[in-house]
Amino acid sequence: MSEAFLRIEGLQKTHGAPNARPTPVLAGIDLAVARGQIACVLGPSGCGKSTLLRLVAGLESADAGAVFVDGREVRGPGLDRGLVFQDHALFPWLSVLDNVRFAVKARWPRWSRERVRAHCLRYLGLVDLLPVLDRRPAELSGGMRQRVGVARALSIEPKVLLLDEPFGALDPRTRAGLQDELLDLCATLTQTVLVVTHDVDEAILLGDMILFMRGAPVGARAEIIPVGLARARRAATLHREVGYAALRHRLLDILLEHPAVYGSAPESGSARGVAASGVDAPNQETSHDKIGRNGTYHRGQAPKGPQLQGLGGEGGTQ
Ligand SMILES: Nc1ncnc2c1ncn2[C@@H]1O[C@H](COP(=O)(O)OP(=O)(O)OP(=O)(O)O)[C@@H](O)[C@H]1O
């Protein structure tokens, strides 16, 4: 792999209010992502995926360890990282164009009106939103709102794009379309990306690598699993990729061994209490596949339905 563009070194974090018992969450996370690569963060509910993303975003500080973007240590929020979070952060009173314009003006305050507009149109065009420039978020479908969020995050030309369960609330067809669009955009822009997801298929589809966080026992190290499938994959044909089923089984097996950290343990032979793919499981074991433990195949519950959005704040890596 070429030199890491996003580097996470020994990241540790314990949550805790003054009068509450401390909650150790991250106990030494390491990750190296090259420029243009996509890393997905997967793991049972409560294992610390969003905490990791917030640390990379600079929205929280670590107890130990460090995050580097393009060689500079992250010390706070910055416009070198574009955020697309679960909850909507579009300004409801602004049009599609103005939501993106707001970000571009913050990023390049000296740009002329014309230059800002042209830049916004470029990114809104990349996500096919030119026909709805004047609409407000309430007048858009969920998928369109998420496209605005992606366009807004990308419009500031971040070094790293951070997505927290970006497509979880969408129907499978819209979700698949947006996943493919994201893959195309990242390839076009050589965009480095960190994606938190509950969805095994999404992790395999998008990721060059998967950071699997076990969550329990506390202090267990995260595992980095290379995806290793052909890069030009698409959501609709992922299940036909050689090696897909074996990797999916492996990930589901690990997930099923690691229940939600603060949820109930899974019952024997059941997927209850674990995060797993919300996409229908395929039934396509091939000669390449390894069947899961006991020869069984488990299907997880659909992930909770998040939404998306967000934009990096002021500041920067230092
Ligand atoms: N600000 C906070 N203060 C105290 N505890 C927190 C805080 N933020 C998160 N936690 C706890 O840290 C643990 C990890 O939370 P986090 O949201 O990072 O997990 P997650 O893997 O993203 O979960 P999910 O998949 O359910 O979204 C949880 O037990 C959570 O309750």
Element pattern in H and E: EEEHEEEHHHEHEHEEH
**What's the architecture, going by CATH?**
3-Layer(aba) Sandwich
Cα distance, first to last residue?
Answer: 25 Å
Q: Write out the strand line-up for the largest beta sheet, numbering strands in chain order.
A: 6-7-8-3-9-10
Mean pLDDT: 78
What is the approximate shape? globular
Tell me the fraction of residues in β-strands, as a range: 15-25%
Named once each, the bound ligands are: adenosine-5'-triphosphate
Question: Could you describe the 3D structure shown?
Answer:
The protein has 318 residues and is α/β, with parallel strands linked by helices. The protein has a single domain (4-295), classed as P-loop containing nucleotide triphosphate hydrolases (Rossmann fold, 3-Layer(aba) Sandwich). 28% of the residues lie in helices and 19% in strands. It is built from 7 helices and 10 strands. It has helices at residues 49-57, 96-107, 113-126, 142-155, 172-189, 200-206, 244-257, and strands at residues 4-15, 23-34, 38-42, 64-69, 72-73, 81-84, 160-164, 192-196, 209-212, 223-226. The strands form 2 sheets. A 6-stranded mixed beta sheet has the order 6-7-8-3-9-10, sandwiched between helices. Helix 5 links the parallel strand 7 and strand 8. Helix 3 packs across helix 4. The longest helix is centred in the middle third of the chain and has 18 residues, at 172-189. It is globular. Mean pLDDT is 78; it is low at 262-318. The protein binds adenosine-5'-triphosphate (ATP). The site of adenosine-5'-triphosphate has 14 residues, from strand 2 and helix 1. Keywords: ATP-binding, Nucleotide-binding, Transport. Residues 6-240 form the ABC transporter domain.
